[in-house]
């Protein structure tokens, strides 16, 4: 149950953000994976071509989302029912590298410089494999680069991927991405303007006021509803300068924040909730994140001095809520 959006600033710079939901508390780190590093996977290994930085499962060079030194950003999202994974031996017979679903984002960010490179090469180089006779968590992926181009990569065909251009810069979960684009047709009447009052015979019917143009926008947490809500909130939000884009991303994604207990999976204690919300600056290669437990924004940069390290680096996320004490204003 994740939601992602791409936002461009007034100057045309590209930013991306996402929420990360799960029903099991995962331990996360900030992580930087160096280039020219021999990275082991579940079924093989490969050498990284670019340094990448993002949110990883603690102590592992396994990025859930991130950005690389070339400004390519992306992340993995749950993709139930439509994934088509195959045995690793079949993938090797095709001359491709078999990857577990959770390993694809790391592979893409450490091997591709742009969206165009992914589109051109990925179906010749990798495929998602069954690992230890298990599919694992089914996933699909979204990427965007400094140009603002965005694509969706779905392992929905055996031994390869279906790739879609993402013209709206919005991403959620199943069903397949092309269905979500078609579903937008059902909501073309939504507006950012307050609906006007009307005269109905002898009765003057007042408008019900603020937000009435968005009356009927879906508010539940299904992927279908979140896609529509994200598309329209992003569409109607104003263009801002680079200095305001990150806060704009957090404001939009706050609409998808799931408190603990609202979405139950299989029992009263098995709940899905928003474990973190992250945002990325493609130009500056900067990460911003706040956690469920700590709403204060934490940052990590892929600085030039960190590109030449020979092993992955990990950075602690502060889970305890941090507060800022207001200073007394200067009296004139």
UniProtKB/TrEMBL annotation:
**The Choloylglycine hydrolase/NAAA C-terminal domain covers which part of the protein?**
2-310
Q: Which Pfam families match?
A: CBAH
Alphabetic keyword roster: Hydrolase
Asked if the keyword Hydrolase belongs to this entry, the reply reads yes
**What InterPro entries would the database entry show?**
CBAH/NAAA_C (IPR029132), Ntn_hydrolases_N (IPR029055), Peptidase_C59 (IPR052193)
Q: Which residues form the signal peptide?
A: none
Q: Note the Gene3D superfamilies from the entry.
A: Penicillin V Acylase, Chain A
Q: Does the keyword Hydrolase apply?
A: yes
Q: Which GO terms describe its molecular function?
A: hydrolase activity
Family membership, please give it.
Belongs to the peptidase C59 family.
Which protein is depicted? Choloylglycine hydrolase
Q: Which organism is it from?
A: Enterococcus ureilyticus
- Please spell out the taxonomic lineage of the organism that makes this protein: Bacteria, Bacillati, Bacillota, Bacilli, Lactobacillales
């Amino acid at each position: 149950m994740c939601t992602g959006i791409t936002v461009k600033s007034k100057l045309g710079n590209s930013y991306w953000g996402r929420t990360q939901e799960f029903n099991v508390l995962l331990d996360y780190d900030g992580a930087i994976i160096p280039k020219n590093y021999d990275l082991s996977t579940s079924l093989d290994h490969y050498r990284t071509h670019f340094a990448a930085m993002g949110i990883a499962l603690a102590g592992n060079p396994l990025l859930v989302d991130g950005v690389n030194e070339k400004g390519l950003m992306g992340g993995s999202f749950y993709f139930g029912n439509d994934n088509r994974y195959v045995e690793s031996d079949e993938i090797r017979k095709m001359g491709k590298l078999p990857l577990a679903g959770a390993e694809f984002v790391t592979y893409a960010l450490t091997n591709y410089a742009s969206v165009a490179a992914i589109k051109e090469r990925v179906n010749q180089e990798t495929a998602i494999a069954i690992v230890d006779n298990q599919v694992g968590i089914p996933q699909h992926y979204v990427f965007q680069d400094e140009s603002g181009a965005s694509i969706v990569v779905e392992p929905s065909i055996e031994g390869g991927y279906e790739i879609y251009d993402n013209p709206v810069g919005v991403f959620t979960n199943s069903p397949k991405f092309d269905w979500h684009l078609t579903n937008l047709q059902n909501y073309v009447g939504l507006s950012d303007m307050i609906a006007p009052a009307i005269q109905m015979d002898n009765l003057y019917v007042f408008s019900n006021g603020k937000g009435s143009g968005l009356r009927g926008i879906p508010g539940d947490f299904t992927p279908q509803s979140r896609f529509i809500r994200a598309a329209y909130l992003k569409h109607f939000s104003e263009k801002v300068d680079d200095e305001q884009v990150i806060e704009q991303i957090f404001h939009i994604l706050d609409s998808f924040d799931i408190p603990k207990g609202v979405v139950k999976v299989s029992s009263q204690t098995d709940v899905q909730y928003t474990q973190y919300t992250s945002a990325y600056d493609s130009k500056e290669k900067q990460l911003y994140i706040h956690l469920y437990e700590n709403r204060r924004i934490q940052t990590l940069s892929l600085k030039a001095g960190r590109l030449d390290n020979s092993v992955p680096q990990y950075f602690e996320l502060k889970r305890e809520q941090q507060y800022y004490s207001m200073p007394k204003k200067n009296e004139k």
